[in-house]
Amino acid sequence: MIYALLYIMVGFLAMEVSGWFIHKYLMHGILWKIHKTHHQHSKGYFELNDVFSLIFGGIAITLIFLGLENFDYRFWMGMGISIYGMSYFFLHDVLIHRRLKFFGKPKNRFLSAIFKAHQAHHASRFKDGSVSFGLFFVPFKYFKKKRDE
Known about the structure:
Blueprint: H1 2-30, H2 32-35, H3 51-67, H4 73-96, H5 109-121
Helix pairs in contact: 1-4, 3-4, 4-5
C-alpha cells in the first residue's frame, strides 16, 4: 500500500514539475500557436489548447494499462497523473476559468493564491511576459492579502 501511495505521489508531483517546464518553455515557446488559444477570449466551449489535456490523459491511460496486469509502478504513476488531471480540471477549468459555473471566487487562502497566480499569468496575452507557470507551486507573494480585501 505504501508502495502504491509513493508512486501516486511521484506521478502527481512529476506532472506539476514537468507541467511547469512544458508550460513555460514549450507552450510559451514553440507550441505557442496552440497554447495562445488559452490566452484569448473565445465564444466556443473548447479551445485548441485542450489538446494538451488529451496528450497528458493519453500518457496516464497508457501507464495504467501497461501496469494493470501486476499493479506495478506504471499503474500507480498513471493514477497519480490522473488525479493531477482531475485536480487540474476542477481548479483550472471549473474554479479559475469557470468553464463550468459551479463555484464563485475562492475564499480558501490556498485556492485564492492559485487564483491570483493564474490571473497574473493571464495578465499578458502574449507569448512573452507571463509569470507563474505551475498550478500548485504558487509563489508566496500570492498568499498575501491586499489591504482592500
